[in-house]
Design goal:
Blueprint lengths: L2 H13 L16 H15 L14 E6 L16 H19 L4 E4 L9 H10 L4 E8 L9 E6 L36 H32 L4 E7 L11 E8 L5 H4 L3 H26 L2
Parallel strand pairs: 1-2, 1-3, 3-6, 4-5
Antiparallel strand pairs: 4-6
The structure holds zinc ion.
């Protein structure tokens, strides 16, 4: 079996919903736990320490979500490139940078190639691997060709509970457990202590997502030569149900006659990688200070 197949099988295992830390012992004759452990080890051994690199202290697992994929092509830019390719390219480069500077951290992508993935599947994966951070990567498009700039979104506070329409064919309780088909559902009294605890956790997650959005957006402003459209709140399905700070980043308009050319350039992608890496470091510092006042 080629190494590409092994990595593919490992990624498939992640995407198909297995817990990342404990993959099934054998998939097509490959011991995935051993493969992942070997990858972690090789990364740590081959790591070239960089004097200037700041270590991550509060963040251990980062999930990067390249928007769209497969049939869902995303926006079509003025350069005839679909958004799904730009987001995947950006995710791979950001992952390589983070992994090179922070060999102790696990950087996981929601997809590793061009295939479709539901919105709730993306955030479920991040929850399953206990991610400390989730960034969904996107590029913008508008019918108005003059729209340009970058923006960062986090979820509106009253929409943090995953909607049932997101979970096809299953009814799901607020604790995420499948409770059976609608016809055999029995009303269960909600334990007020459990409800309060969950509510506090959701509040904390939403506050931290807002902070992450601020940090990401101001770092984009420092690295991109474009219009700052600011931090916004919206009801994005990909953010609903997140248990960690989670944002959607819109890196620029593929539909703009000039920015549409910029966003496909190596320079623009490098600036984005710099901006997001910087933002992750800054957010890590803020979290560390918050957790150890
Ligand atoms: Zn998009």
């Amino acid at each position: 079996m080629k190494i590409r197949d092994i990595i593919g099988a490992a990624a498939l295992c992640i995407i198909s919903g297995s817990v990342y830390a404990v993959p099934p012992a054998n998939v097509r004759g490959v011991d995935l736990a051993a493969v992942l452990a070997a990858h972690d080890r090789v990364r740590q051994i081959t790591h070239q320490p960089n004097e200037d690199a700041r270590p991550l202290r509060a963040i251990r697992t980062i999930v990067l979500d390249p928007g769209h994929g497969g049939e869902n092509q995303g926006a079509l830019g003025v350069c005839d490139v679909h958004e799904k390719y730009l987001t995947l390219e950006l995710a791979y480069e950001l992952r390589a940078r983070l992994q090179a500077e922070h060999p102790d951290a696990r950087i996981i992508l929601t997809r590793y190639w061009d295939h479709g993935l539901g919105l709730s599947e993306r955030i479920e994966l991040a929850n399953k691997v206990n991610a400390d951070l989730f960034i969904s990567l996107h590029y913008n498009a508008a019918t108005h060709p003059r729209a340009l700039g970058f923006e960062t979104y986090f979820l509106r506070a009253n929409e943090t509970i995953p909607g049932q329409e997101e979970v096809k064919g299953e009814m799901v309780a607020s604790n995420g457990q499948v409770v059976g088909a609608p016809e055999d559902q029995v009303e269960q009294p909600v334990d007020p202590i459990v409800f309060m605890r969950e509510d506090l956790l959701r509040q904390k997650q939403n506050e931290e997502s807002g902070l992450l959005a601020e940090v990401v957006n101001s770092s984009l402003a420092g690295h991109l030569n474009s219009v700052n459209r600011g931090v916004k709140q919206a009801n994005f399905g990909v953010l609903r149900g997140a248990k960690m700070p989670a944002v959607v980043m819109e890196a620029g308009f593929v539909s703009h006659p000039e920015e549409g050319h910029d966003v496909v350039s190596v320079e623009h992608r490098t600036a984005l990688v710099d901006a997001l890496h910087n933002a992750i470091l800054e957010f890590d510092e803020k979290l560390t200070r918050k957790n150890n006042p």
